[in-house]
Design goal:
The protein has two domains: about 240 residues, 3-Layer(aba) Sandwich (Aspartate Aminotransferase, domain 2), CATH 3.40.640.10; about 120 residues, Aspartate Aminotransferase, domain 1, CATH 3.90.1150. It is about 40% helix and about 15% strand. The protein contains twelve helices and eleven strands. Helix 2 packs parallel to helix 8, helix 3 crosses helix 7 and helix 9 runs parallel beside helix 12. It binds pyridoxal-5'-phosphate. The site of pyridoxal-5'-phosphate has 14 residues, from helix 3 and helix 4.
Length: about 375
């Protein structure tokens, strides 16, 4: 059977020609494409500021640092996410307090946040899982503001996800996106932080480049600068930024296809007794299309798909608190996160997927459930 890939990058020959010109020019970082990509990303998300970074995790780390999160602070993180959502807070020495998520969309909700809040809580992380928007993010944002708690959006899955026409990432204090190769757009490794707060923007811009006070392109004399913070080197190269720039410019059509693909899955799988999924939502950017099946069946289906060369994955197979590193408090059990971990299958939605391939995937699911 012909292979169906789980993800497919949206990079064309014209893009690679420009990338090779950049490589041959020798101007590989701090270049014009970094600015172009940041500007296009601001336009796409309608945010005031954006900063390219080496990956989404680095972006989240910088957000926590810029907000002053430190040792002994508590950060609430959904138990169902990539470990990066927790690690990025742990880097600061803060304690991660996990909370349960919704069964259907895997997202955190306000009730769970309220249950887990303490006088030590300094920040809440929301993750728009699989591209599905956190439905009550506005209420969460109002609640956090009232309690003087920072809200960080992990938008690794959520390029193109909106709530009431507002792009996610604009509801909290700052947010970070991922451009890992399976994501909606890719720069190999890469990420971008957006914020609408100038102070946070300035701090993150400095922290991503050693804590240096002025941009290389704005220096009057080469090599003359001061260092204000214990910063990092979390920069993205210019050829990566060029890749991101080309893809974000044509992302609307990519997104349209992802949504069409999600609709096809829904149409074909609707009504099956043993297969569950979230109802089609026009605001979801469909990083993947997730279905849920009985836990005994799930691994069988994934194994069968591997044999058949049908790309699929699991996001994620364990709640974060069950990884050894985070397993200090063994009494904690998160029923919904556990259900999600045991039963989810991530199906491809990328823009090169053909309706026939979706039909075939659904046919196999019907046979196997
Ligand atoms: C929800 C979530 N957050 C953060 C990350 C980390 O992204 P990156 O690999 O760009 O650091 C990922 C990675 O896939 C993710 O799925």
């Amino acid at each position: 059977m012909k292979k169906i890939s789980f993800s497919k990058v949206d990079i064309n020959k014209k893009d690679t020609k420009v990338i090779s010109d950049i490589l041959l020019s020798g101007w590989l970082t701090h270049g014009k494409y970094t600015t172009k990509f940041e500007n296009s990303f601001k336009l796409f998300t309608k945010s005031k500021y954006s900063i390219t970074v080496s990956n989404c995790t680095a972006g989240l780390h910088l957000i926590f640092l810029a907000l002053g999160i430190k040792k002994n602070d508590e950060v609430i993180v959904p138990a169902m996410s990539h470990v990066a959502s927790a690690h990025s807070a742990s880097y600061t020495g803060a304690k991660v307090k996990f909370c349960d998520v919704n069964k259907v969309d895997g997202n955190i909700n306000l009730d769970q946040i309220k249950k887990n809040i303490s006088y030590k809580t300094k920040a809440v992380v929301v993750v728009h899982m699989a591209g599905s928007p956190v439905k009550d993010v506005k209420e969460i944002s109002n609640y956090c503001r009232k309690k003087k708690i920072y809200l960080i959006e992990d938008c690794a899955h959520a390029l193109g996800t909106k709530i009431n026409s507002k792009h996610v990432g604009n509801f909290g204090d700052a947010s970070s996106f991922s451009f890992y190769p399976t994501k909606q757009i890719t720069t190999g490794e890469g990420g971008i932080v957006i914020t609408n707060n100038y102070k946070i923007f300035e701090k993150i811009r400095r922290l991503k480049a050693f804590g240096i006070n002025n941009d290389i392109n704005k220096r009057k004399m080469p090599g003359k600068y001061d260092v204000l913070d214990l910063g990092f080197n979390y920069r993205m190269t210019d050829f990566q930024a060029a890749l991101g720039y080309f893809q974000i410019k044509r992302y609307k059509s990519n997104l349209k296809k992802r949504r069409m693909n999600a609709k096809l899955y829904e149409k074909s799988l609707n009504g099956l007794k043993n297969v569950f999924f979230e109802k089609y939502n026009i605001n979801n950017s469909y990083f993947i299309f997730q279905i849920f099946v009985d836990r005994d069946k799930r691994d069988q289906i994934v194994k069968k798909f591997q044999k058949l060369n049908i790309g699929c994955s699991i996001h994620y197979a364990k709640p974060i608190n069950e990884y050894k590193f985070y397993k200090k408090d063994k009494t904690k059990k998160f029923d919904n996160a556990k259900f999600y971990a045991d039963s989810n299958i991530s199906l491809p939605t990328h823009s090169s997927l053909k309706p026939m391939e979706i039909e075939l995937i659904c046919k196999k699911i019907k046979e196997l459930t």
